[in-house]
Amino acid sequence: MTAHQWRIGPAPVDGEQVDLAVDSHRGLRGPYTGLGSVLRQLVPQAYERWPDLVQRHLTEILSAAPELRGTLDAAPETLTSLAVPEERTRIYPANRTRRLAHGATEFLAGYATRAGRLPLRLAFDRVDQADPTDQEFLAIFLRRVRPDVVRVLVGTDGAPLEPELTGALDRYADRLPELPRAAGPAGRGPEALLRAYVDADGTSTDPAESAAYQQADPQVRAALHDARAALLRERGEWSLELGAIPWHLERGSDPAGAGAEALYEAARHCGALGYYHAVIDYGTRGRAIVDPDTQMERFWLLSTRASSAMVVLGRTVEAEPTYLDLRSRYADPELQMSTGYALAMLYTRFHPEELKDHHLARGYINNSIAIASLLPDPQKRAFHSVFQNNGLALIEMRLGRVAAALRLVDDGLDRLDRELPGDKHRLHRSVLVHNRGKAYLALGRLDEALIDLTRVIELDPNYADYYFDRADVRRRLGDLTGAVADCDTAISLSPPFFELYYNRADLKAELGDVAGAIADFGYVVELEPDQLDARVNLVSLLLDDGAVDAARPHVEEGLLRDPADARLLHLRGVLALADGAETDARRYLDEALAADPGLVAALASRAALAFDGGDHGRAVADLTAALAVDGDNPDLLYNRGFVHEAAGRWAEAAADYDRALELPGADRAELIGRRARCQAELDGTAAGGPGGAAGRPDLAGAR
């Protein structure tokens, strides 16, 4: 099977043998420049032939290629996507782009398979200049799609790549010979070179074009940028508003006006979709071209767009000075209120643990609550007071005052109902109901939590995360079938994310649906191979099901990613035992216990190996160590009793059987029979004279 390919340097003049080649430079269309360009060309024909395939991936298609919205049925809307900007109080998590990338990967693989174009050959050029969304997509695409289905050519110019993409290229792509860079067309005068630079929309790498641009009259340059921006806008392609158009306008005749406005709109759009690296870029560029003294509101909004994106990406220490700078610059009440809320959330929720300070957070939020109470507009006063008190509720939760948090949320919902029209702030009402449900859950009031989560689903039926949360409550209430149904609904509403499948796999395993659990855990590690908990569970289920050969590659892949993971080292030992390679098994089990001396499963497995070799002392020692970690495990007690019995230590065996009989989950019939045998030996009445137990311990739970 021919591998994917990686070319560093310019594309050959005659081009590679590909079906579709796209330029991925983020300067053209911002996030998903490359993926969006592919989708714009393939989706319309796919929609005509296989509308079900497109419908299944509408969210990811329309997120990466927004121009297609007018030609496709709309994706399911949520209150988040429908909220007007001033009412948007919930943002997507940073990993949403991974979900989009997985969905787009499955769409393109499905398209290639249905079209019979195997392999579909796609080339993505200038990937080192691509937005992190495209680089993340390509890393996932290279890993998940077989090159005999879609063969990918990644072209770069030698600049650093995102680490995940570098790793994917090193593992899944063949490196092509680097080609020399050709000079631009000869004989062009300064005017042609200048125009070529501008028409390249900020992506030119030709030194002659760059020099001509730098030497040109600034007014001439500005006029060319204005004209180019106007020409691009005539095309009516929204993604150009995320790349080339703002680049031209911030260099045109009105950078602080039209340029800053274009950057703000790009930041707003990308913030709503979770493209946070781009938001930081737009916000930082916008701050540089506006006057903070005469354009306070624009400077404030561009600043907080960028800092909020940093927070979501975990760059909280970098974000905090922006909020403090704004507070020191302006006395505007709403600015002070909003930055106070942001700082409170940093100190109670987002900062690293060593920097969190819930009491400082409460000081910030109380100041914001005071400001909100003084706002002159009644509706604004009501909304912002409730919003700020919801922040205080979170702080109270973090301080362990769950009842106080619940009262704040209840009061907020009552106030919204009293003081705001029912069609106002629907999103925030749903957030409050959801938060109250989570508070009930924290208090152990599961029935009330279920009522609120059901209510929030009625308010916002297309938001997948609510079904995810309700599934957790239903599981705790013992309604495993209902929990699976909620997971199923969430899966139908969202691009793939591993947590949903992980939870459904656990539920299926509890329900005895081993095949279903294996399939879901298998999909989890396909989506995110570094999810070692899922991999361990998958291998354990495969081994329990007798599928030893199917388990092997999962163990080896896991150890490739984390060679020191004790659980995987143990499972490699279990596989060696299945092969009869006892020496290798003992080495692997020793390695597992060197990595984690308290790993019960490895201690139990090594005890079994020692028992089979006649070393009863080692077997007892390992089982005793396991019981020091998990003292209420009836299977471990049974096993140690069995080893004692085999060694003729009847009193010790009987004591272990007695203790096991006191514990839930014990095999009472087997334990009573073994206990009777020990008592008979102790009484001297056993038939056949002295002797050890027959067989070997039942090492339940060894994996």
From TrEMBL:
SUPFAM superfamilies: TPR-like (SSF48452). Gene3D superfamilies: Tetratricopeptide repeat domain (1.25.40.10). Residues 683-703 are annotated as: Disordered. TPR repeats lie at residues 430-463, 498-531, 634-667. PROSITE patterns: TPR. InterPro entries: TPR-like_helical_dom_sf, TPR_rpt, Ycf3. Keywords: Repeat, TPR repeat. Transmembrane segments: none annotated. It comes from the Bacteria. The keyword Repeat applies. Pfam families: TPR_16, TPR_19. This is Tetratricopeptide repeat protein. It comes from Micromonospora harpali.
